[in-house]
Fold:
Amino acid sequence: MAEIRVDSLKKSFGDFTAVKDSNFTVENGEFFVMLGPSGCGKTTTLRMIAGLEMPSSGKILLDGDDVTFNRASHRDIAFVFQLFALYPHMNVRRNIGFPLICQGIGRTEIRRRVEETARLLRIDHILDKPVSGLAGGDRQRVALGRAIVRRPKAFLMDEPLGTLDTEFRDLMVRELRELHNNIGATTVYVTHDQIEAMAMADKIAVMNHGVIEQFGPPQEIYDRPATMYVADFIGSPPMNFLAFRASLPKGGSNIDIGNASIEIPELREEVEESDLMLGVRPEHIRLDDTSAFRGKVIGTEYLGTTQIVTISTDHGQLKARFAADIPVREGETVGLSFAGERLSVFDRGSGRALHSALHDTHAETGG
Amino acid sequence: MSSTTAHSVVEPGRYLRFFAGAVVVVYALVTMIPLVWIFITGFKTPQDSISYPPKVIFEPSLEGYVNLFTTRTRQTPDYMATLPPPETWYDELVRSRQMVIAGPSKFGERFMNSIIIGFGSTFLSVFLGTLAAYAFSRFRIPLADDLLFFILSTRMMPPIAVAIPIFLMYRTVGLSDTHLGMIILYTTVNVSLAVWLLKGFVDEIPREYEEAALIDGYTRFQAFVKVVLPQMATGIAATAIFCLIFAWNEYAFALLLTSGTAQTAPPFIPTIIGEGGLDWPAIGAGVTLFLLPVLVFTILLRKHLLRGITFGAVRK
Structure:
């Protein structure tokens, strides 16, 4: 088991910079997820940690040892590939045992460990089958088995659930997390699926264009997005944005949008007159007839226990999550109020979240 | 256009299929005629082989095969009478023509040369081709595209165009009429084909397999041998057959560069001369035997070849 530290890591391919100055630490036993759209640099970062790609600059430390330029085979890290990369000319047993053969482990010991691993993953009944005929979930388990059997310092996984169908994916998300809880190995997991990330991660790094936009536990990333990009990427439907222009004093806790005054968490910094965005999660919107902030319902989407209501306002469109039993009719004009202590304010130019009382709680609880 | 029309274009009707099948079978039979003719000529007597109109029905004889493997001398009837009775069936056959066996012919030796040179150059081409193809497919090589094009340039002219320079060169360095010289020459011609064919096969193998092996603790070379090579088997088999067929059948260079110790079968077979002209049954027998190794080799690798021939459509 190990701690992985990534220090000012950069990677360029010719003119294209895939990873710009990444810094993070994955603590021993942590399940760490790198989340971002395709091409954001998350897989490149993972491949650099694995030793399959050499960084242009920066350092990778494994348990304090600099392994930046070590061969992949000398890092004692296991990697689960997106397409599993099960060797097609070997059966399940030989696939799982393959990493042990080069360690010079005896045949009976290999047999014992392969069978132990297979039992853990509940694939002991298919050990002597060829890998070509396996179903997606079983292929996934064999790939995991090949990683686990070595008892490596850390696991790296590159969108390992990407090719599975939804039903299997939910099952594997649970199994993976359960497996992690059992063996407690440091895991770096790459995905573009925020639901997977939220369900499994101890910590998430949200990446965009080679930059880590935010690094923290899932709850913090959801509640206190550091940038508009993160706010928009996480959550379904994502955070709503209402544009306004104002200069705000330090300690201010009110903003005016149109003729409505909206309470926000107390600001911890001063802002000169500029274009700003109010960020509101769908579940932090309430119907309130007394409110001066009004909009017209233009669509509803029934989801069982809740409904997503699309409301058009003078300052942008909102998607609100209401309880399913609240009657809302399309075309109706409604008043809206917000859960003031949960709102974020962003600088529109840089996309950065303004420091506010919202982040005080972070210091107390998240620290 | 409706989808039903599209389907009827893809799937021809029964009669059309039957007709198409018949055309293919007839065409195949037509192309087989020379082979069949050579094969039956091997079992004719010299008289039957040159009779006109050609004989399709004849009494089979092994004279061609006996003549192929032996040299014979004609003797007077008086001398023949002094000989002890023939010991074997082929002694008897030769004596019935008023001749005695003087010794073995050079055919066995030439055939062996063909085997050594053909398989030697095939092995070397495929070996070098596999390594080069892997390197071109996996590593960032400066000017890789130009190099690949340059490799192919050896096949852009008929090989015989450079026969004279090669002949002079070989004479100077002492490679004329040697096995090594012929193996090097055929390898030179074949290696470009091998690199290009095999590169296609390596490109088809996802890199993840090797990367998985690298992470599992293997060196790049071990990963190549244990993971890439087994998956290249199809491509290697297909490439080996193409290389062998070229090296085995090559005539022009063999004729020019070999005359004795390293002469291969192709330039030797047409020189088999009997009494009063070419010994057609012996030539027929020689060609028949000459076809066998490639046939056997192809049948042995048939399973791989059938998959290999479809090239791109191999995986998944």
Observations:
- The longest helix of chain A spans residues 166-183.
